[in-house]
Design a protein that fits this description.
By secondary structure, the protein is α+β, with helices and mostly antiparallel strands. The protein folds into two domains: 6-98, no CATH class; 101-279, Nucleoside Triphosphate Pyrophosphohydrolase. Helix content is 29%, strand content 29%. The chain has eight helices and 14 strands. The strands form two sheets. Strands 6, 7, 8, 9, 10, 11, 12, 13 and 14 form a nine-stranded mixed sheet that branches. Strands 1, 2, 3, 4 and 5 form a five-stranded mixed sheet that branches. The radius of gyration is 25 Å and the shape is globular.
Amino acid sequence: MSTNLVITCASEVKDTPDEIRGSSLLTEWLERINTGTPCYGDDNIVRQVITVRGVHVYAADRWGPALADGKPEIKMMYIKADAVDQDGNLLTGLGHLRSDTVEVVALLEVEGHEEQYIVFVAQPRVPGGQVVLALPAGMVDADDEGNFGVAGIRELRQELGDDKICWSPLVDLNNCLLYGYPSSQRGDPDISESLGKPLLVSPGGTSERARIMLTKAQVSQDVLAQLRFRFGGAQDEGERTQVVVSPLSDAIRRLASVGNGVDAKAILGILLYQEYRRRVKPALPASVEMYYFTRLELTLRILRWLKRLIKR
């Protein structure tokens, strides 16, 4: 970060400009601006450059475990940036900085049930003006060291109020949207090999970037019954969630049944999973493949016999 960057704070902000300057939230946002390539892959888009000359902080929120300086991590800031483009034109700089988030498509395979179930959480969202039905989600903390899988499982267990369910390793569904899986690939890809680009949630107002990830668990009918409408969340951080379990086939209708709006990331998570299922097909057992091959061969023989019979 340039030492020439001017940082000022409103009188209500308890953090000093130097503390704001040293926060990972601000430094990572500025690094993203410095390394962005908006003309990537398309020569028709004019290359534009964003230069941030100063930042005024209206509010900064800390929570979570204490870091090395004895204070919790700064996870949100409300700012106005003094920013210009490559021609010196002033850009709109009012915005909200927040840590990266992970959204989890959590599927349950229930003993004795053929259909999969998906887990949602209902939570009051003051800015959204309603109780929102959404995927289990949360921020990636500094001590996660950028590991979205660790953050995802932690948030899932926290919001469900259950740490006994054995969830499978998380799969990055962003890959499916942005790159696609090879059609010949079978089974779940290893998320340690490649992570797709994060999704920009609302880039005109917030720095939030999200990854949508998939995990599954096999549970008994008793566990399913215990999960329904259970309360969870980090209540010491103002978070109170309630678990809602829905058949996957009814998931979108269930999302639309709550409030005056529908959570976009939950809808996208379901659609990404459907695309994932289309592209990544599990291998059939050899006996099943031989069954279909035999039926196909028999059908072709019958058609050839009928064709000869018609010619006679």
